[in-house]
Write a structure and sequence with these properties.
Layout: E1 2-7, H1 10-28, E2 35-40, H2 47-57, E3 64-65, H3 73-91, E4 95-99, H4 103-114, E5 118-122, H5 134-145, E6 148-151, H6 154-162, E7 171-174, H7 178-186, E8 202-205, H8 209-212, H9 215-229, E9 234-237, H10 240-249, E10 257-260, H11 265-274, E11 277-280, H12 283-291, E12 296-298, H13 306-310, E13 314-316, H14 321-333, H15 348-358
Parallel strand pairs: 1-2, 1-4, 2-3, 4-5, 5-6, 6-7, 8-9, 8-11, 9-10, 11-12, 12-13
The structure holds uridine-5'-diphosphate.
Length: 359
């Protein structure tokens, strides 16, 4: 069996690393040969947003590096479509595997579908119900043209049912969450970032376009983080997009916020293990907070991981400074239950591979 894996952005490296591991284990156990061809679209390209994940997580070196980045959505997706199609025509895989909700996801799925190559979508069925998010558009369209949808949660399954996917000749499989695999595999290999000395800090990551693209929202979020930092150390690995906008909007950052460069996955695992709570607008980091039993304040208006809000471990505040500070006080004064199994058992990679082999 031959699989072409299409990745391009940081969260996709973390997820694809786990399926690559399952493929490697399968081949080494003599269960038959699966060949994996990796296309890196180039959407994320900095060493600390890309290479470090390949090195730390043992992802095979990409067979094709398309180098497409820093373009508008249309130009980026269009160039990817054209270049991915060429590779697929040459490689003739049995499956194209796409992850999540980026431009690389939709470009990969569309290129494959048009030339009748089967598409499997990992992290299918998620919805924010906010069509202004580029991610929402990408994930809905990718789900619709896939042959197999691998859903992480009951919520994802319910979303697909509500949209009538069961009548669309698409196989839908609940697999659990592939990021839990990564958290489990790497939790014993955590690396303390050099710049971070103590523990029990607030870990923050901010990068969603809906926040970075608005001066007011970004200002409010950083103002709330500054107030939190006057009480507790805040550690913030700064995404390049957010860095760009902080400079562009001339937002003043409190010196009490410990800004560090984006870190590798092993450092992130250390930060998640040693923090007391998370403030983020990331999709993946919300779940990782739960995996590491940490409360999370989500500075967005909605989340794809609504089950975390329902069990009161994740608090949606948007970019409203007062709401963020209220949630902070709620988190420091309450104990929370992190023992409900929402995301499976950390063997999602094997379920995915088994399905690909049997279809
Ligand atoms: N991550 C990381 N280093 C960082 C920030 C995030 O390794 O400095 C990891 C994080 O732990 C998670 C993934 O990157 O596994 C999530 O990526 P991101 O927040 O960029 O994307 P999203 O999940 O919002 O799509």
């Amino acid at each position: 069996m031959k699989i072409v894996t299409i990745i391009g952005a940081r969260p996709q490296f973390v997820k694809a690393a786990m399926v690559s591991k399952a493929i490697k284990d399968h081949n080494e156990e003599g269960k038959g040969k699966i060949s994996e061809i990796i296309i890196h679209t180039g959407q994320h390209f900095d060493a600390n947003m890309s290479d470090i994940f390949f090195n730390q997580m043992g992802i095979p070196k990409p067979d094709y590096d398309l180098g497409i980045n820093s373009l508008t959505h249309g130009a980026m997706t269009g160039q990817m479509l054209e270049k991915i199609e060429k590779v697929l025509i040459k490689e003739k895989p049995d499956w194209v595997l796409v992850y999540g909700d980026t431009n690389s996801t939709i470009a990969g799925a569309l290129a494959a579908k048009k030339i009748h190559i089967k598409v499997a979508h990992v992290e299918a069925g998620l919805r924010s119900f906010n069509m202004h998010m580029p991610e929402e558009v990408n994930r809905i369209l990718t789900d619709r043209i896939s042959d197999v949808l691998f859903c992480p949660t009951d919520t994802a399954m319910e979303n697909l049912t509500a949209e009538g996917f069961e009548n669309m000749h698409i196989k839908i499989v609940k697999t659990g969450d592939i990021m839990l695999d990564a958290a489990k595999v790497y939790s014993n290999y955590a690396v303390q970032p050099r710049e971070v000395l103590g523990t029990n800090f607030v870990l923050s990551t901010i990068h969603r376009a809906e926040n970075t693209d608005s001066k007011e929202k970004l200002k409010n979020i950083f103002s709330a983080l500054s107030k939190i930092a006057s009480q507790k150390q805040v550690v913030l690995p700064l995404h390049p997009r957010t860095k760009h906008y902080i400079e562009k909007y001339d937002i003043e950052l409190s010196p009490q916020i410990k800004i560090i460069n984006p870190v590798g996955y092993l450092e992130m695992v250390w930060l998640l293990s040693n923090c007391c709570m998370v403030v983020t607008d990331s999709g993946g980091v919300q779940k990782e907070a739960y995996f590491f039993k940490k409360p999370c304040i989500t500075v967005r208006e909605e989340t794809e991981w609504i089950e975390l809000v329902e069990i009161n471990v994740n608090f949606l505040t948007g970019s409203d400074e007062n709401k963020i500070l209220e949630a902070y006080h709620k988190v420091v004064t309450n104990t929370m239950n992190f023992d409900i199994n929402l995301y499976g058992n950390g063997n999602t990679r094997e379920t995915i591979l088994k399905e690909l082999l049997s279809n």
